[in-house]
Amino acid sequence: MADMNNTIWAKLCRETKGLLDDKFTRDSGIDMIWTRCAKTNKTVGFPVFEAMLREVAALKGMDLFQLESLVVENAKVKQSGTKAQNVKFYEVPKPKTTKGDQIDLASMTNTGR
What we know:
Recoverin, domain 1; 4% strand; EF-hand-dom_pair
């Protein structure tokens, strides 16, 4: 199971429709809950993530089950970044022999260009 860091937590909170409101704000709520639950850790596991969701539910005055349903239905975290492209590697042709098994200098330096 992958751990969660503060950046992923903030992105999840920002991109979940209906999660941010007057009680749970973008500016202070996201970071305050992370600091309160994660303490000095840079990454957290699933149990701490559940504790953060309980904090958000208490702050918003919701039941934990309602908040989990909101997150599951509306969390649409978008991946952004570079994507790998198909790369066709150039293959150097093998030198051709000109006289039987002998290879001359001209055929060795011919790269097919």
